Amino acid sequence: MSWYNLSSSGTDTSIGGCSFLEYNEQEDKAYFLINIMGDGKHEKEKIQFTVRTLLTRVSTLEQDIPLTEIFNDPVMKEVEISGFGGGVRGRELCSKLINGRLATVIDISELMDMDDLDRDDLNVTGIAYADGILHVQSCRGSNEDAERHLQLKLLADGEEYKDGMGVCWREVVNGEEIIFDEEWYAVSPEELAKSHLVGIFHIADSPVHGDWKVITRIE
């Protein structure tokens, strides 16, 4: 992931923040927005901005995800989750898939050759329907030098279906740790038939590593 920081010697409070704006490949320059704020003490002669890692390619792509190839009653497995999210009702409807830190998810090794798994991109790896729940599984890859996230929206008649939840976990595939996510939606076959799925793919990668420091003053 990106690592950059704004600091000042002699400070006793936060002096503000910084955010990455863009990387211009033609100029080979990165642009940041720096905000200086706060009423604490700091040395205005020694404002230091540091960059160690920068993800230079940042993109967001929204596209439809076809629901034409849904696996019915797929092979499932239990995994130890590292995180979960969703509203109270969604968690209640999908509670049968959670047992403490274990979750029941699609076993994609039954659907694809794991050697073909793209570890450097964000992909939907499987969509299945079982026991009244739609499972949508995706893979973020290693995320060691990237930040990837898939935001899903299940829509029917223009309205987003809110009663769902999601889990994430890590697996070692061919000696490399990979991050997976799976979203669950408790929908009837009739509801599913009139729904469509939209994915928003958030990707930040192409890292540049270094140890750059700029020390300046503010007026």
Give structural notes.
It is a single chain. With 219 residues, this protein is mainly β. The chain has two domains: 3-58 and 206-216, no CATH class; 62-205, no CATH class. It has two helices and 15 strands. The strands form three sheets. An eight-stranded mixed sheet has the order 5-9-10-14-13-6-8-7. A five-stranded antiparallel sheet has the order 1-4-15-11-12. Strand 11 (147-156) and strand 12 (159-160) form a beta hairpin. The longest helix has 6 residues, at 88-93. The radius of gyration is 22 Å and the shape is elongated. The two termini are 32 Å apart.
Radius of gyration: 22 Å
The count of DSSP E runs of length 2 or more, i.e. the number of strands, is 15
Multimeric state: single chain
Shape estimate? elongated
Number of helices: 2
**Structural class of the helix and strand makeup?**
mainly beta
Would you tell me the overall average pLDDT?
83
Between the first and last Cα atoms, what is the distance in angstroms? 32 Å
How are helices and strands ordered from N to C? EEEEEEHEEEEEEEEHE
For the sheet with most strands, the description reads: 8 strands, mixed
Sheet-strand content, in percent, reads over 45%
Q: Provide the domain count.
A: 2
Spatial ordering of strands, largest sheet: 5-9-10-14-13-6-8-7
What level of helicity do the residues show? under 10%
Poorly predicted residue ranges: none
